[in-house]
Write a structure and sequence with these properties.
The protein has about 260 residues and is of the alpha+beta class. It folds into 2 domains: about 150 residues, no CATH class; about 90 residues, no CATH class. About 30% of the residues lie in helices and about 25% in strands. It is built from 8 helices and 12 strands. The chain has a 6-stranded antiparallel beta sheet, covered by helices on one side. The protein has a 6-stranded mixed beta sheet with strand order 10-7-9-8-11-12. The radius of gyration is 23 Å and the shape is elongated. The model has no long low-confidence stretch (mean pLDDT about 95).
Length: about 260
């Protein structure tokens, strides 16, 4: 497992020489240590939901402590490296590479990092201080793989977040939260089928295509209305109305929509 982390170090070092040659080890936290940023979601979540490891980071050694390098390692072996100049304020290069490592070894590393970092409550730790030079048993690997089912709902929702939706401009431009959401059969593989409206549009407004916009569901969720996330995996044919500041229910045409604006 240590071999994969050594490959990560090699990739980071090579790209820093190419694209940040003026940055010296003394400019970096712990002389350029690589930190494993598992604190936000954890190894298990990112592996089973996002198909990658948490980020590997190198930080500048100043009061802002911004990133100099962010490395994304996907479960396919694809590596994405982001390099930042001006003490982390300017992205200067994004590079894609590929690690020629068997997928089972990637899986083993995920299991090891879960056990040796997450389970031991080591969050955002220096990879040199995480005990990874070990072998994992077949039983341990099967146990780790068995956790995938616990993340199936979240993975499905995150997949839907990458698909498009039709959104009323009253939500986008006027600051209204979603008051009505309806899911139709998707038109193609990139379509979620979702339609989001504030709930105070009339038929004339909605019949004018200039008042509608295509956005990915994830953008609606992250930037416009966090309340929709728990409902986005409901099936085609679903019609929901907002009934409170943060709840929806099936529209039975017997209640007024609770209208709300973003704070």
């Amino acid at each position: 497992m240590k071999r994969i982390l050594n490959e990560i170090r090699k990739i980071i070092d090579e790209n820093m020489v190419l694209y940040l040659p003026h940055v010296k080890s003394g400019d970096l936290e712990n002389d350029g240590a690589i930190f494993y940023m598992n604190a936000q979601n954890g190894t298990e979540f990112d592996w089973f939901v996002n198909d990658r490891f948490p980020f590997f980071m190198v930080f500048y050694n100043d009061k802002d402590n911004l990133g100099a390098v962010k490395l994304v390692l996907c479960n396919t072996g694809e590596v994405q490296i982001y390099l930042y100049d001006e003490k982390g304020k300017k992205l200067v290069k994004m590079v894609k590479e590929h690690l020629d490592i068997d997928k089972i070894d990637m899986l083993k590393l995920a299991a090891v990092l879960t056990r040796e970092a997450d389970d031991k409550k080591i969050w955002g730790g220096n990879i040199d201080n995480i005990h990874t030079d070990i072998e994992i048993t077949d039983d341990e690997l099967r146990e780790f793989c068995g956790r995938e089912k616990d993340h199936a709902v979240m993975k499905n929702r995150m997949n839907i977040c990458s698909l498009s939706a039709v959104v009323s401009k009253k939500i986008i431009e006027e600051g209204w939260k979603v008051g009505y959401m309806e899911r139709n059969e998707p038109r193609d593989k990139d379509d979620s089928g979702w339609f989001f409206a504030s709930g105070n549009e009339d038929d004339e407004y909605l019949s004018d295509s200039k008042n509608l916009m295509l956005l990915v569901v994830g953008m609606v969720w992250q930037r416009l209305d966090r309340d929709i996330f728990r409902y986005i995996d409901m099936p085609a044919g679903t019609k929901l109305i907002r009934i409170s500041p943060n709840e929806f229910e099936i529209d039975k045409n017997n209640k007024e929509i609770y209208l709300a604006k973003r704070e």
